[in-house]
# Entry
Amino acid sequence: MQTNLSEEARQLPRAEEADKILRTCVHCGFCNATCPTYQLLGDELDGPRGRIYLIKQVLEGAPATAQAQLHLDRCLTCRNCETTCPSGVDYHNLLDIGRAVIDQAVPRPASQRLLRQGLRALAPNPILFKTLLQIGATFRPLLPRGVEAKLPHDLPAPGERPVPRHARQVLMLEGCVQPGLSPNTNAATARVLDRLGISVIAALEAGCCGALDYHLDAQAVGLDRARRNIDAWWPYLESGAEAIVQTASGCGAFIKDYGHLLERDPIYAAKARRVSEMALDLVQVLADEPLERVCAATDRRIAFHCPCTLQHAQKLGGAVEAVLTRLGFNLTAVPDSHLCCGSAGTYSITQPELARQLRDNKLNALESGHPEVIATANIGCQSHLNSAGRTPVRHWIELVDQVLR
# Structure
């Protein structure tokens, strides 16, 4: 499409990028066919094409409005539209640019500001988050249903993590909320990798990947977290660590974007590119490893929910399914497996009604094959789907850990 950015917009650090993305779009509308919010709401402005127009209008000088902000807020950033788009529109980066411009121009109501600031203060702090989870579990009967449902139920104990002992070593992002919501995930990962001759080493200085801040009106804070992680990982990469492994696909998608997001940073640009190249989802590490040698065959009936950040952002759709099939797991068919479950980071909290509708639709699809358990690859999806209290949901590596010889 043709563009004519305003003089003010041309001064933005990412103005050239925004202009290029806008010009890529041919407004064909194929994206709306796979957009979860457009399917639910049927509003052109709640689909990718409409949101692109809203951002274009603001960048060309139209006033930013609270209504435009709402339509952008309703976007899950699932990136399904990017998979569908025949023109290769880099939608999520345009959305980030548009959100930053509109959020700066349109002050949020106090209730929204408090919610977003609270999430940013709580979620990236694993110790505080875990402590509050424990308090919540103690007073579970007294909590509102919406809050109680988000607390984990019947989690497997994490068990022991092997001491690093192998020449092959990888770093692993521990995550913010995962140690509290699913403490066995990273422990199971360390055990499986250890059996394959790969040790997980800790970079204790590394913290939140930065995605939560970046997507909650605090892009600069998110990028600062990225820089701190780069500093924490860099000595280990120089010493021979093979990869930076993520067990949460949402974190992995953001870390793989460090190189792009920091490309204009004269100090961190080169290091950020290297970190993004070294960042691997767990399935990328295990795909070529001889898992059959260390795992017993199983025919356990499961459904796999492929998170949007795995299939659309990292383009790894089908990778986990292939690994699980190799081990004998009986994977059920999942209709509309490309659609988002509604978790989308903090979306289930900031947009609870839409998130519940998407969750229930996704569970209906996942349960249509009558699985014993649902597996996934992202803690947000796992927690959100589990909140319905239906079929139990676990990270797929926990199921692999259970069949270790």
The first strand starts at residue 168 and ends at 172. Strands lie at 168-172, 198-201, 244-246, 279-281, 301-304, 330-331, 373-376, 393-395. The chain has a mean pLDDT of 95.
